[in-house]
Amino acid sequence: MVIVEFLIKLSQGFGIGALALATGLLFGGIGRKIMARIQRRYGPPFTQNFMDLFKLLSKGSVSHGWAFDLGLVAGFAPMLAALMFLPIGPFTLLPSDSSLIMIVYLMMMAYLGMAMGVLASGNPNSAIGMSRALMLMVGYEVPFAAVIFSVYLFSKTGYLTQIVTQQAGGFMNWNIVKMPLGFLATEIALQGMLGEKPFDQAIAPAEIASGPMVELGGKYLGFGMIQHSVGLFLETGIVVDLFLGGAPNFWIFIAKQFVLYFIVILVDAILPRLRIHEATSFFWKLPLFLGILQAVIVIIQGGVLNV
Amino acid sequence: MKTYNLAALLVGVPLLMAFSIPLFGFISKQLAKWITVLTLGFEFFFGLYIFFWHIYPFNVIMGNWVPPFGENLYIGPFATVLIILVSFVGLMISIYNLWSANHGDVVHFALLFLMFVGGSIGLISTGDIFNIFIFMEITGISSFALAAYGPERRALGGAFKYLVISSIGSTLYLFGVLLIYTQLGTLNIAEIAARISQTTSGLLTFAGILLVAGLAVEAELFPFNGWVPDTYTGAVNPVSATLSGIGSVGGIYVLFRILMTVFGKDGNFVSTYGNMDLMALVAILGSATVVIGELSALVQKNVKKMLAYSSMAQMGLVAIGFSIGSKLGAYAGVFQLVNHSIAKAMMFLILGVIVSFGIGEHIEDMKGLWYKSPFLTLAFTIGALSLLGLPLFGGFWSKFALVDASIQRGGWYDFVIAIVLFASVVEAFYYLRIVGYMFTSKPTSTDKIKVSISPAVPIVAFSILIVAIGIFPQIVGGISWNAAHELTDKMGGYVLNVIPTIVGH
Amino acid sequence: MSEWTEIVDYFRGRSMWMLHYCTGCGAIELPPTMTSRWDMERFGITPMATPRQADILLITGYLAIKTLKRVIYTYEQMQAPKWVLGFGSCTINGGIYWDSYNVIERLDKYIPVDIYIAGCMPRPEAILDAFVKLKEMVQMGEAKGYEKYVKNYDWYKANQDKVLKRTSPVLKEIEKVTKIG
Amino acid sequence: MNSLLALLIVPVIGSAAAAVLQRYRLVERLITFLTFSVTFLFLFEIKIGDILTWHLDFLGKNLEMGLQITPLSIFMLYMTIAFGIVLTFYNLSERSKMKGFLLLLTLAASNWIFMSTDLIGFFFAWELMGWSSILMIFGGKREEESRHGALYYAMMSIGGSYSMLIGIFLLSNLTGTFSIQSNVSYLTLILGLHPWWVLGIVSLFFVAFMVKSGIFPFHTWVPHTYGEAPDGFVPYLSSVMSKYGVYGFLIFLPLTSGAHVPSVLGLAWPNYVLLWFGSVTAVAGSVLAFMQDDVKKLFAYSSFSNLGFILAAIALFTPIGLTAGMFHAFNHLLFNGAIFITVIAVISKVGTTRMSEMGGIWQKMPLTFLTFFVGIAAAAGIPPFAGFGSKWMIFQAMISHGLIFATVLLFFASIASFLYLMRAFHAIFLGQLSHKYDNVKEVSAIGKITEVFLLGALIFFGILPGFVLDPINSIVNSFGLKPLPTSGYEYINGFFSSINMVSIFIVVIVTFIFGFALFAVVAKHKKVPQEDNYTAGQIPQDWNLTPEMYQFSYDFYEPMDKELAPFLKVKIDGFFKGFGESVEYIGEAIKEIFTGNVQIYTYLAVGGLVIFVIAGWVVW
Fold first, then answer.
1. Domain count, chain C
2. B59-63, B407-411, D85-89, D219-223: which has the highest mean pLDDT?
3. Is the residue at B170 inside a domain?
4. Which of A150, A279, B185, D125 could form a disulfide with D109 if both were Cys (CB 3.0 to 4.6 A apart)?
5. Using a CB-CB distance cutoff of 8 angstroms, which residues of chain B are in contact with residue D604?
6. Lowest pLDDT segment from B99-103, D375-379, D466-470, D522-526
7. CB atoms C79 and A59 under 8 Å
């Protein structure tokens, strides 16, 4: 009985993974298309990312040793694992464990694994890229944490499923209305999380030869791409669950995610890249201020738990 | 009044043997040294006998002239603990001398050494303030000569400085005694103590100041301690050990015998008769000594000089302990005195062994001693840690008691103890620095130091004693407590034991 | 199996990432090719930063002997399948440097070239044309220069040694070079 | 023999034996290991509530001293001794200069600290632990630096102890007893009447604890000392010895849980202040850590950053705060031990502590590399390893009080910990392998066993935290608080959600399997050496490029320095050093009194006498 249940969950998880990957790749392709149109180009077909991924997985590649391989898998697997706890529309694979902080930390493990892989290659460009990525992470995670904590206090729960449920009943119940400042901070942080301009210092192709990915080719780059696509789905999905009230079905969920991603792409299209320390300190100023202000407002409204 | 005239041997035997040593010296130089050991062994076991059979407190009456008319020795708890201490340290140093004193006039060295220890025991046990002066001169003269002993020229300079300052001290002391005598017409401590309130207050204060100043020389209190660094550094190591482990004990004993028994006014906290509280004066002197001693030691690079300064600072601690005036304070003082004598004497002896192997006295020369001789390093560390007041070693309990006493007294003693503790941190720094040099660095030459049996015996004995006191503080605790009791209860503890019929005022 | 190969080849042709080795003046033609006017991204062709990620090695001009060595090194660092585009006359016959003592005349003596783009300079249209041609060749399974390199490695190596005056392979371990993917 | 007494006596006997036999290194190490093991066996004999008292005839009183087992003390004892066994087992194969007899003395002191019912015994053990560890640090590899480190530690530690000593006597003079229990309850009693007075005394104690745990602003000794201590001792120093301060805090924290003190956000303000000390420590530790190039210093800062987390959590003194703090103390012991043991394994092989000189060691020491990886994953708080649960609970405990600023600071510290962990990970294990280290070998069999054990423990306690949380709950209960609900060994319960660690573990494992399967199915790869690397077309050999030149690890986070420069200007280290220097300067001046000229001495003596006479006789 347990085994049957496990198999059902396994296949569902596989489905979610495939869905998230497909959505992520599609978003990436649409993003490229939008970007091209903003730049008055025709742009690649929106299925371009699928083709790229297929090509990458079928192309030859080099490995610098088993740590390199392990790192890439360790970058890919926890991201997929984190996905299993995300409420997607009405559906959550493992609802009882969908604690937000846990998802955030699982995502960090993905970054850690990825970092292990690319650093094992021994290329200084990947080391520089990784150091930039980590410094940027110190930037955007802090305001994001402030927002997460204010949502915790506001909702009095840490389960993402319950946070979604509490927002049921129309637009006015969404957290974006109740916590606009927090949403703003999150949106800025999201720009950094997705590594789009002006926060794409880690992957600076012209300076450090695409940073962490410098030694990745073929399936390794493919794994990186999967990780990025799933991460895109996951990160936008978290924001949707946190602020946009989740969704009654999968399509609306994707639509809401796309709205978020669309904003990110627009910002990406018009801004140049900041220097890394400017980017980090930027996150410590406006977004952090907004996040903390939001938390203070929540606390003043009586958000403190009775302990 | 208990009497036990046989105890006159305590003073008589060492002096007699001292003056007969040249006779033995004709037979053999070794015999002269062994006579010292035997005599001091006798002293030590006599002291233990007195202690364990609870014979004390008692008087030794000379020629059946009862005090205050005759001269007497009074051996109370305080004297007992110090006699045991002094004879033990003396015994150990004399065993050490079997190995170390082998150049120059060995026979006269043994004579002087025995005379010094005998004088110190006399100083501790006598019941007459003029006899104190006499014994001070005996110890003084023998110690000047001892300090000048040795092949090094700097010994002469140190001895001369000691001679000059010590003479000033003796003179001041004699003036003080004179003033008291003009007032009361007696030299017996018990009688003076009982009638001290009959004196003119101003004159008494003046006498007290003279006495304090005179005795502070031997007790190594600032500003009368200028001789300490030079003399200790100049003298050969066993002599430094003797001066530090025995000489200063006598100085402190007399100082507080006079302040607390003679001048003392009973109360919760003993203070003195007269215009000013001499106990407070000594506390100030003690604090200044601690601070100056520790800070001077901090910047020293010569280990022996560092030990000398530290010795000074430790005596400051002892003085502070006594000057608190409570029973607990006196207890801390006695305890600290015991710990300091043992530890410091041992450290000087270790230094002597090290130096005899051609290693210098500079702190850099201590590098890598651990690799040359773990035994000496461990022993030195034990001594240092005991002086720092770290647990498992005797010093822990005395510092513990000292802080307790100070805080119990409260008031401005809180500041005193703050200063003391700060100075202790400084002390920890320089001692641990030496220990660090010993433990960390690899030596340039890796010749092992082979310590022969004669210097090893005292070092082992001292180490074991330090650790034993550290684990079982009761060893010193009980007798120190009795000594503290004697010091703080001047009528019951001292006067009535000497002259039962006297009426206090 | 051949259907699978066809599918793979189809997607490979639709997603070609390019490493441009800009040695000469030809590089000036690439920005218009990439940007709004000609927009090569619509064919799935994107510039890449490192040889590990790239499928196409685009050599845009004359190759001095010094640069040739780097080109070979870069080519060998790329992973199969990989294609080389020789851009401009210089890669075909030395161009205006035809008689220079330290410029090679024919690139395909040293590494296999799949397509040459003639002209001095070739216009962006020509470049795009080459890309499209390459795409077709890939999808037809015709662009197999990288296999030729492995098969005829001794010949290429001899030619390389002649100009580079060195005997050891650039990547040291010869069996690694002569093995595909 | 009474088992409580055995916990003190056995290490001391072992210590004596080790001291005598210290010439035979292997025998000494074996004795150390066996003594730890035997001590651990005696732990099974004792149970909560065991008590042993004796009387000490001292200070003229008949003082009652004693040992007692509380839930807290037994937790601490198990934790520390078990870790000691692992460490001494590991050290069997290491050639570090650790002196076993000092470690065993520290063990005796440590056991006494955790069991003592009276302040005399507590202080005795505290000082014993202090000096034995100081002497141990003298054995470091670099002579000058280790001496400096040990002395720095000694000064801070002894200063702290004296502060505690004064506190002890101020207390005992009030209550007339040295019993910890009665003193604490007395303080609780008079807290309402004389809050300032009580806080004054308690803060005297806290200074000692803060020094020992390395809490800001008394943290300055930590990097100097950890960085220079003998390799074999550093894990003990950072994992075990830093917990003494935590234990000390826990003794006195129940005081302020009464409602007599003004409160901030439902938190008694002394707790609030402590919490801020903890938070600042966490941040300062993290920030300073990622700027280090010396690996031992880096993890020294890391260690005190984690102590900041623990202090912040226990300062809350709520059930969840206490649970989180104790849990983190346990986890810190575990992952810090794993990290430091692997780090010293590497150091002993490569012979340097500078990370910029290492790199690529993973190829040579794969097991060490994996252990380190799991260790840093746990340190970063990544599920499903030990370390996640406690950090997550700390955040919940903080935020449930509405302490948003402190929480964000802590979260910042937590994220910054990624930076320094990755830096160490990269610089030591990843990246280019220098040819210097071509002959480096994996650790010996003993080392491998240790590492596998630690690896297993990190995963085991990560997925089954209940084995730690159960004893912690009884600790919480013993403090009179209501423990968190328990629902099974695999659950971590918090305010906002409860997490099933086993399910996370399974999910992660399944995804890993899936990942490897996918990895194996798609196109093949070929293995290339690390020299075959992207170099923008340059051929490394032609340029005499060596692997170490191609390794970027020096000044890894240089851009960050610019941003943090204003904060780094605050140099507390400089304050303590400057203080020391000025003391030395004064000493230099005072020394001049003793010129060696007898005339001066005479003038001094006579001058002193004259002043006394004038001041005392005439004026007084």
1. 1
2. D85-89
3. yes
4. D125
5. 223-224, 226
6. B99-103
7. yes
Instruction: Decide if pLDDT at A286 tops 80.
Output: yes
Q: How far apart are CA C69 and CA B352, in angstroms?
A: 75
Q: Supply the DSSP string of D184-198, one letter for each residue.
A: HHHHHHHTTT-HHHH
Find the domain containing C123 and state its range.
2-177
Q: Residue B46 above 60 pLDDT?
A: yes
- The Cα D207–Cα D215 span in angstroms is 9
Q: Could you read off the pLDDT of A128-181 as tens digits, one per residue?
A: 888 888 888 888 888 888 888 888 888 888 788 888 888 887 777 788 888 888
User: Mean pLDDT over residues B27-46, rounded?
Assistant: 86
Kindly report the CATH number assigned to the domain that includes residue C6: 3.40.50.12280
**Distance separating alpha carbons of residues B320 and C148, to the nearest angstrom:** 97
**Using one digit for the tens of pLDDT, what is the confidence trace for B364-397?**
888 888 888 888 888 999 999 998 888 888 888 8
| Interface residue of A58, A63, A213 to substitute, partner C, most C CBs within 10 Å | A58
Chain A residues whose beta carbon lies within 8 Å of the beta carbon of residue D265: 304
Closest residue in chain A to residue C45, using alpha carbons only: A44
pLDDT band at B201 (very low <50, low <70, confident <90, very high): confident
Does A229 contact D at CB distance below 8 Å?
no
- Which of C8, C9, C15 to mutate against chain A (most A CBs within 10 Å)? C15
Which bin fits C172, alpha (ψ -120 to 50), beta or left (φ > 0)?
Answer: left
Is B156's pLDDT higher than 80?
Answer: yes
Q: Whole-angstrom Cα distance, residue D607 to residue D133?
A: 46
Task: Please indicate whether, in this complex, the C-beta atoms of D557 and A131 are within 8 angstroms of each other.
Answer: yes
Residues B438 and D139: beta-carbon distance below 8 Å: no
Q: How many A-D residue pairs are in contact by the CB < 8 A criterion? A: 267
Angstroms from D402 CA to nearest CA on chain A = 5
In A15-74, the residues whose Cβ lies within 8 Å of chain D are 17, 57-67, 69, 72-74
- Determine whether the interchain pair D608/B224 forms a contact, defined as Cβ–Cβ distance below 8 Å: yes
What average pLDDT does range C163-173 have in this prediction? Answer: 60
Distance CA(A145)–CA(B452), nearest Å, equals 71
The kind and range of the H/E element at B200 are none
Please tell me the predicted confidence (pLDDT) of residue D553: 80
pLDDT at res. C181? 45
**Is there a domain that residue B326 lies in?**
yes
Given D382, D419, D547, which is nearest A105 (Cβ)?
D382
Q: Which residue of C has its CA nearest to A32?
A: C41
Count other Cβ atoms within 10 Å, centred on residue B41: 16
Decide if B80 is inside a domain. yes
User: Could you give the CA distance from residue D421 to residue D375 in angstroms, rounded to a whole number?
Assistant: 10
| Maximum alpha-carbon separation in chain D | 104
Whether residue D539 and residue C73 make contact (CB cut-off 8 A), yes or no, is: yes
Best CA proximity match to A152, nearest among A191, A188, A179: A179
How many domains does chain B contain in total?
A: 1
Q: Which residue out of C65, C66, C176, C178 would a mutagenesis test of the D interface target, given it has the greatest number of D Cβ atoms within 10 Å?
A: C176
Q: The domain containing residue A173 runs over which residues? A: 2-303
- Using the beta-carbon criterion (under 8 Å), do A304 and D265 form an inter-chain contact? yes
> Among A65, A69, A101, whose Cβ lies nearest the Cβ of D363?
A65
- pLDDT average, residue stretch C131-144: 86
Domain segments of chain D as ranges: 1-255, 264-483+491-570, 571-619
Q: pLDDT tens digits for B310-369?
A: 888 888 889 988 888 888 888 888 888 999 999 999 999 998 888 888 888 888 888 888
Strands C56-59 and B72-75: unpaired
ipTM of the shown complex: 0.84
Do D151 and B429 count as a contact with CB atoms less than 8 A apart? yes
Over residues B75-88, mean pLDDT: 88
Verify whether the Cβ–Cβ distance D612 to B381 is below 8 Å. Answer: no
